[in-house]
Amino acid sequence: MWDFTCPDTLASSHLSRAVLGLGAVANKADEKKSKYYSLPSLYDFTPIAVETSGAVGESAMDFLQELGRRITNTTAVQHSFMFLMQRLSVAVQRGNAVCVTGTETSSPIVWTMKSLYYYNYISTFCDCIVCSVLDI
User: How many domains does the chain have?
Assistant: First the structure.
């Protein structure tokens, strides 16, 4: 089981952590594990965090590398992990573009709709990859 988040590296609430180094904001997502402690031990939870700057958290990178390895084993395409990371990068860039264009309007409704689209786009992308690899 996994939980995806894409924190805005430049948000005022993250700046004090972002200056600590690349991926510091994404690594904060590991703290999300605590809300899943009540799950039975048969579930393995992994937080997936990719910053808007593109940095990936440590646990997310471990997960993505394992996913890339499984894709390679399933498809025999040796560059599967690289392709996975490229697709994730493009998804983050598209989401950033949606967020930036959302700031051009003064309507909070348009901003909310674009933010929801961004979150759903990346979540759907991740769901499709995981489901296709795990044959779900």
Answer: 1
